[in-house]
């Protein structure tokens, strides 16, 4: 007699059969990663392929949220009008007030040109924005309104738009800059100390005003070796910090991403900038730029773990209830912490001195809560000499005089109406400019 399965049992059997046929066995052998295009090297497994959810996914409740130990409530105290860029309106200046001279850089969100202000002949920097959401442009402008011209912060002097193409551009002070690839190898120990003290002054300034830069890297640090002036530029990824807010982890450049970004810890804070600063410092004193050189985000975390060790990594992960996909854990492996003196390059011993290594150990820390703040870092013995020099300039009035002179120079260029007058902005949600129009825009200024 032939046995016939009841319909409900047949349905369950077929469902199980097709599920098994369509799904890979678990656990997957690392060499047979389900995301096969990236399986040739364990540490090159993509984050999205090993279970690290993108920032848009809903997060499971964690056992502990991170809150900044400094300046956590700055924006709340300053009020909504200070940080709310959704209601910012900009009166765009006249694009014909400036002419482009030459292209000097490009990035994911902009093209950068050297230019001149037609009326005065003064050199300026013109940042032509690529098609992005209006909200992102408003955020950058609002942040620059709040901190532009602050301590070692680049000054925005105007915001213009080409009405024919809809192309917006931000106009900045011109900064004589030495390319970091040729500059850094020439640094003495005193140069490095001064350079990072000035960078930390910029970070202390913006953090105290509730703003994290989120893209600290050599390309965004302008430095004139002759005058020893530094400016922190490119505030396109900067954001206002609120302790109850989750942030996009797709910020910062890969080599300077903190572990919090690589593990999808969205409640990060200003301390991300201190990790990035530590990466820049390590690259200079060890003459190994970049210091952590991952092929992708997953490999970047592997590279970090091979230096800082895995014991502290998993302590930090457990503390906050973070998750790392088993496949990525297997790729990371187990590593003891390597002392930083193992990375000292021949001929660079004076740069990687005891004070420098001590500072680095306090910046390159997995747990954001345990990293030095900008203010704490400036108080480190590594900066005793530049800090004493700065305090002397304060006492003698030289610092105030230099700031007043620089402000007077920039006030001649700055267009206050572009920032203060509130107008309805007629532009659509995305700027209707095509990439090929940049060539036309560049040629028009020649």
What does the model show?
The protein has 446 residues and is an alpha+beta fold. The chain has a domain of 221 residues: Transferase(Phosphotransferase), domain 1. 37% of the residues lie in helices and 12% in strands. The chain contains 17 helices and 10 strands. The strands form 3 sheets. A 6-stranded mixed sheet has the order 1-5-6-4-3-2, sandwiched between helices. Strands 7-10 form a two-stranded antiparallel sheet. Strands 8-9 form a two-stranded antiparallel sheet. Strand 3 and strand 4 form a beta hairpin. Helix 6 runs antiparallel to helix 8. The protein is globular. This is non-specific serine/threonine protein kinase. InterPro entries: CK2_alpha, Kinase-like_dom_sf, Prot_kinase_dom, Protein_kinase_ATP_BS, Ser/Thr_kinase_AS. Its EC number is 2.7.11.1.
């Amino acid at each position: 007699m032939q046995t016939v399965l009841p319909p409900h049992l047949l349905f369950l059997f077929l469902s199980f059969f097709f599920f098994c046929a369509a799904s890979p066995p678990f656990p997957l052998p690392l060499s047979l990663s389900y995301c096969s295009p990236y399986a040739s090297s364990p540490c090159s497994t993509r984050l999205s392929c090993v279970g690290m959810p993108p920032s848009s996914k809903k997060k499971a409740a964690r056992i502990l949220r991170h809150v900044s130990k400094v300046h956590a409530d700055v924006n709340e105290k300053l009020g909504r009008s200070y940080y709310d860029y959704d209601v910012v309106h900009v009166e765009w200046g006249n694009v014909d007030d400036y002419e482009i001279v030459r292209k000097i850089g490009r990035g994911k969100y902009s093209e950068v040109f050297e230019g001149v202000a037609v009326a005065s002949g003064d050199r300026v920097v013109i940042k032509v924005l690529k098609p992005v959401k209006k909200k992102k442009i408003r955020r950058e402008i609002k942040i620059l309104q709040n901190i532009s011209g602050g301590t070692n912060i680049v000054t925005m002097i105007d915001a213009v738009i080409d009405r024919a193409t809809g192309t917006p551009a931000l106009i900045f002070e011109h900064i004589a800059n030495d390319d970091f690839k040729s500059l850094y190898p020439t640094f003495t120990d005193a140069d490095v100390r001064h350079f990072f003290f000035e960078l930390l002054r910029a970070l202390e300034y913006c953090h105290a005003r509730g703003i994290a830069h989120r893209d600290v890297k050599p390309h965004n640090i302008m430095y004139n070796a002759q005058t020893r002036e530094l400016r922190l530029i490119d505030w396109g990824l900067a954001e206002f910090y609120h302790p109850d807010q989750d942030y996009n982890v797709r910020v910062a450049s890969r080599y300077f991403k903190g572990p919090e970004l690589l593990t999808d810890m969205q409640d990060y804070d200003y301390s991300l900038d201190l990790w990035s600063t530590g990466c820049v410092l390590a690259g200079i004193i060890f003459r190994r730029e970049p210091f952590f050189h991952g092929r992708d985000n997953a490999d970047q975390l592997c590279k970090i773990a091979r230096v800082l060790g895995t014991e502290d990594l998993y302590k930090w992960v457990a503390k906050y209830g973070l998750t790392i996909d088993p496949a990525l854990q297997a790729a990371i492996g187990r590593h003891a912490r390597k002392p930083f003196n193992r990375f000292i390059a021949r001929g660079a011993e004076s740069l990687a001195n005891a004070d420098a290594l001590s500072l680095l150990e306090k910046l390159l820390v997995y747990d954001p809560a345990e990293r030095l703040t900008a203010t704490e870092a400036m108080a480190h013995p590594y900066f005793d000499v530049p800090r004493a020099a700065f305090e002397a300039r304060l006492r003698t009035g030289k610092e105030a005089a230099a700031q007043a002179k620089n402000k007077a120079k920039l006030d001649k260029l700055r267009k206050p109406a572009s920032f203060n007058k509130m107008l309805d902005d007629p532009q659509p949600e995305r700027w209707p400019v095509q990439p090929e129009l940049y060539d036309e825009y560049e040629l028009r200024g020649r």
